[in-house]
């Protein structure tokens, strides 16, 4: 009974985002951690992400039934009624936003709202089905959780927050493209315009290589800008160049599916490792200038 209500929230994605929330939060904390704020931020963001995922699953029922990977999902099987699904998604979202509003700050709430609107509104409702740029727009939503974690502490969108946004946005492109390659038949069957389907696997390999190079530069900028230390820099360089070398083997591989699945698995290892390293190897920076002070209208 309960299991279907857990599965419909995409626990794997929630867990992955939780790691990046903690990474952003601890990076901004710079050693002085407010654990009650951390707990509220983790739960609040997880509830908002869960809400977004339930809405996404509700919206995607018609295409999920066409893909091997998703055809057995809870809503495709009709295990939860549409009305209950919508109510459940709303309750998760209300609880998450209320928690963030009560215990964090308006800037964090605004980034949660941004991530939610981009994921459910722009990506799920429209771009995923209509545009090859859906993944690029979707990556903005996936970059929201670590920025929420960071801003829950900093209460300002400074250079550190911007670098986090860029790191996580760039990371998601090879992550998603690798999936789109090893799940190529699924996306073709569901007519989802991901890059490999629209422009071919060779072009996608070029994009993957360029995005990983951009990702490496962005990850190193955290240390160069004084937000993270040299242990983080070393690990970021090893992980980034390891991922790049793995990507480059794609130009010689005889089996794109196996190569892409390895690249996807490495993407999870990469982002998890970096989230941990930025949590433990921050550096004491002077109070950074705010780049962007969102004000609530
Ligand atoms: C443009 C953004 C993203 C896209 C299009 C995307 C797409 C996907 C897809 C389709 C899967 C299922 C792969 C499979 O099972 O074959 C997946 C798995 C996964 N993704 Fe992403 N993802 C994105 C962002 C993220 C973010 C931001 C995180 C966390 C930081 C994340 C973490 C994971 C994890 C942990 C898995 C494996 C667990 C699972 O399959 O549920 N992804 N991703
Ligand atoms: C604050 C907030 C709500 C942030 C959103 C965090 C989040 C869920 C990021 C993932 C973004 C994304 C495009 C996932 C793929 O969805 P998909 O529909 O392509 O995946 P699927 O085919 O497995 O359903």
UniProtKB/TrEMBL annotation:
UniProt superkingdom: Bacteria
Job description of the protein: Converts heme B (protoheme IX) to heme O by substitution of the vinyl group on carbon 2 of heme B porphyrin ring with a hydroxyethyl farnesyl side group.
Any Gene Ontology biological process: heme O biosynthetic process
GO molecular function, one term: protoheme IX farnesyltransferase activity
Keywords, sorted A to Z: Cell membrane, Heme biosynthesis, Membrane, Transferase, Transmembrane, Transmembrane helix
Reactions catalysed: heme b + (2E,6E)-farnesyl diphosphate + H2O = Fe(II)-heme o + diphosphate
One Pfam family it belongs to: UbiA
Entry's Gene Ontology cellular component terms: plasma membrane
CDD domains: PT_UbiA_Cox10
E.C. number: 2.5.1.141
Subcellular compartments: Cell membrane
Miscellaneous: Carbon 2 of the heme B porphyrin ring is defined according to the Fischer nomenclature.
Regions that span the bilayer: 12-29, 35-59, 79-101, 107-126, 133-155, 161-182, 208-227, 233-251, 263-280
Descriptive protein name: Protoheme IX farnesyltransferase
Pathway where this protein functions: Porphyrin-containing compound metabolism; heme O biosynthesis; heme O from protoheme: step 1/1
InterPro entries according to UniProt: Protohaem_IX_farnesylTrfase (IPR006369), UbiA_prenyltransferase (IPR000537), UbiA_prenylTrfase_CS (IPR030470), UbiA_sf (IPR044878)
Family to which the UniProt record says this protein belongs: Belongs to the UbiA prenyltransferase family. Protoheme IX farnesyltransferase subfamily.
């Amino acid at each position: 009974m309960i299991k279907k209500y857990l599965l419909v929230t995409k626990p794997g994605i929630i867990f992955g985002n939780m790691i990046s929330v903690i990474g952003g939060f601890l990076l901004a904390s710079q050693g002085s951690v407010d654990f009650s704020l951390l707990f509220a931020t983790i739960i609040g963001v997880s509830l908002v992400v869960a809400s977004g995922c339930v809405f996404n699953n509700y919206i995607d029922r018609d295409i999920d039934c066409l893909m091997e990977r998703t055809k057995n999902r809870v809503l495709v099987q009709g295990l939860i009624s549409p009305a209950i699904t919508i109510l459940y998604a709303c309750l998760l979202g209300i609880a998450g936003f209320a928690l963030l509003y009560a215990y964090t700050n308006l800037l964090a709430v605004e980034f949660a709202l941004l991530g939610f609107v981009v994921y459910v509104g722009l990506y799920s409702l429209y771009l995923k089905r209509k545009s090859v740029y859906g993944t690029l727009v979707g990556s903005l939503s996936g970059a929201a959780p670590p920025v929420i974690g960071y801003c829950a502490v900093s209460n300002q969108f400074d250079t550190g927050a911007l670098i986090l946004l860029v790191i996580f946005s760039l990371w998601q492109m090879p992550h998603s493209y690798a999936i789109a390659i090893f799940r190529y038949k699924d996306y073709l069957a569901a007519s989802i315009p991901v890059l490999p389907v629209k422009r071919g696997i060779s072009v996608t390999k070029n994009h993957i290589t360029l995005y990983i190079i951009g990702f490496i530069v962005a990850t190193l900028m955290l240390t160069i800008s004084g937000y993270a230390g040299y242990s983080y820099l070393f690990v970021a360089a090893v992980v980034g160049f390891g991922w790049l070398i793995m990507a480059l083997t794609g130009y010689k591989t005889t089996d794109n599916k196996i190569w892409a699945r390895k690249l996807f698995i490495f993407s999870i290892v990469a982002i998890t490792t970096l989230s941990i390293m930025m949590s433990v190897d921050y550096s004491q920076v002077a109070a950074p200038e705010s780049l962007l002070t969102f004000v609530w209208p």
